[in-house]
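Readers of this paper often ask what the protein records in our data store actually look like. The remainder of this section carries one protein's record, kept here as part of the documentation.

:::
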Amino acid sequence: MPNRGRKGGHKGRVRQYTSPEEIDAQIKAEHERAQEAELEEGGGGAAGGDPTKPKKDQSSDESDDEDDEDYQQKRKGVEGLIDIENPNRVAQTAKKVTQVDVELPKELSRREREEIEKQKAKERYMKMHLAGKTDQAKADLARLAIIRKQREEAAKKKEEEKKLKDSTGAPAKGMQSLSLNK
């Protein structure tokens, strides 16, 4: 049978490979463009710097904390080419270990909250059930009372038959008919 899939489908096309020299030339051209853009934006600055690294303002002699706040992470993929204006998008900020507050209560996810609520509801129900306040517990207690009454009546009948047997020496009428049927 013929293979109907697309495996091996690009046989007639010419494949183009980029040489390492061309790649190096492209990277150098990008660096030059980035440096020119920095010169235009800042009116000067570090001439041999990497465009992905943050620029340090030479006029400010403050602590490194402020420099860390100005630092923007390197954008991945197409993010560097497209400006995204999504008001719902939350920018992720990296925090230092000294800035993290461990003592704050941790916010639970919806599933975790629902699971905890379910467990608490089950515990409340079991307490009410053991106290006999739920409908199911009331029904169980009523059934138990009926069974106890039936067992008491059965025990009384056995005792009466035993007394009758002991006093007459012969088995009771009900017992005699049972033994004959066997």
In short: The two ends are 77 Å apart (CA to CA). The helical segments are 20-42, 64-70, 110-131, 135-168, 173-181. The chain has five helices and no strands.
